[in-house]
Write a structure and sequence with these properties.
The complex is a heterodimer of chains A (247) and B (250). Chain A contains 13 helices and no strands. In chain A, 70% of the residues lie in helices and 0% in strands. Chain A starts with a helix and ends with a helix. With 247 residues, chain A is an all-alpha fold. The longest helix of chain A has 22 residues, at 43-64. Chain B is 29% helix and 21% strand. Chain B has a six-stranded mixed β-sheet with strand order 3-7-6-9-10-4. A two-stranded antiparallel ribbon of chain B has the order 1-2. A two-stranded antiparallel ribbon of chain B has the order 5-8. Chain B is elongated, with a radius of gyration of 35 Å. Classes of the chains: A mainly alpha (247), B alpha+beta (250). Chains A and B meet through helix 3, helix 5, helix 7 and helix 12 of A and helix 1, helix 2, helix 3 and helix 4 of B.
Chain lengths: 247, 250
Amino acid sequence: MNNDEDIRLLNEDPGKLLIRYQPTIRIIVKSLSFKGYLPRRDVSDLIQEVNRKLVERMPRIRQQYNGRCRFMTYFSVVVRNLCMEEFRKFRLPQEPQSEAFEGISPDSATDPLVIRQEYERFCRALRLLYREEPALWLSFKVLADLDVSPADIEKFGDSCNQDQVDALIVTANMALHKNRKEKFGILSELLGILEGKPRSPEAVRKWFSSRLEDVLLLMNGNPPRSAYTLDILIILLEKSENDKKSP
Amino acid sequence: MKEEQPYNNPAVSGNHLDENAIGQYAEFLCGIVPDVPADIRIHVESCAECRMEVMEAADLIRNSEQAAGKLPDKRWRSAVRTAIALVSVLILAIIIQRLTSPSTDPLISPNSKPTTPTTPITPTTPTTPITTTTTTTPTASTTPSSFTPNPTYEALLGAAWRGADNPEVKGPGNDAAFKPGDTLMITWDAGFKDNFTLLVVDNHENEVGKAAAGAAGRLEWAVNLSPGLYYWKLLGKREMWGIGRMRVEE
């Protein structure tokens, strides 16, 4: 959608804007429904309710939108929040419906597109942890027995020269096919150098465990609609990295 | 680790990010904008609730883009896959048809032997008092098309009743060859009650013969057909209990 046109309609003709956004509203409500937030038969009722609330709140939306993101993004967040308000109002968060897990979709979980999309979600989840992203990437790669690249080291900043980067990569690759305890030992060594702050293998394990919970929460959603675990994330990482290598 | 930035963005109102900041961060995660203010990032780093909101907003952007056709649509890809599968089946069917064409068809090869029939084919003798042969109108000619398998019936061959209520129909094997004058014999569990009728059709689904069972558990029918590929069906009042294929040679 054209952002300028959206903003013009927001100011001049909010009714037309709402009509223009009907497909977006439907997509959001349906996607939340498919994620197990509400039974599918309630979708049309919820769309109607969301529209009613949007009409009421349009002046506030106009007032609060500050133009720092596209209107479509802002509006999508508003619609999602309205849906969540409805879910909370009428019922406690439900158990996700069975089809959310049982996969009525014809697309298999091994579909390359699904894997790519989930891998992108994983990247976004790590990015949300901002300053810990480089250490998390390194940890996941070491735990997944994937080759650590110079780019993984450079994410920590450019304090290392080429020889140091090479030496760190050699150290990282020593973790290949070791058990988890030994891997955390090597990670402790690597992170100690890269972050300039020594941490024991046990401290690294505890830190990783705690961050892993955050990542799993982001990947699985709340209420959960996926069942990611560390092992599944490692498989996802392996598959995605291998797909990148293959032509 | 990166240095912590001052925490002064008005988008971080109260305890949590507002919709603008959530949208801004989500767009950054989706690569729509190159950066996002550090104070928003720091807040998200430490606030699980806002982190979840941003993650969900980024998922929404991706879903909307996909639905708008900016990303490959899974449904579209499914349709393409289905089309490819159908074309493959079609090609396979053509190949099978060519392989089973008269020149190479083992069904009509003079040297080919019929596979072991489950019920012996009895020679034509006048010992068939229980058979009531009715319409026998040979229609198939000896053209190659007379031997082309009928896809509908071919799909049914080998189908088995799995329920306990089953007459256990037995006929000659599906590669059985007959000559005019031979007898087709079908047997079934004599204790099973139904109004059994034998129907013989050619490969173009034209009825060429019909016989009603006169006695329990057995039905014989004199084959008086021109060369070609035929199918027999043993019908009950409501069910088709058995189907088989046979060919008639010169």
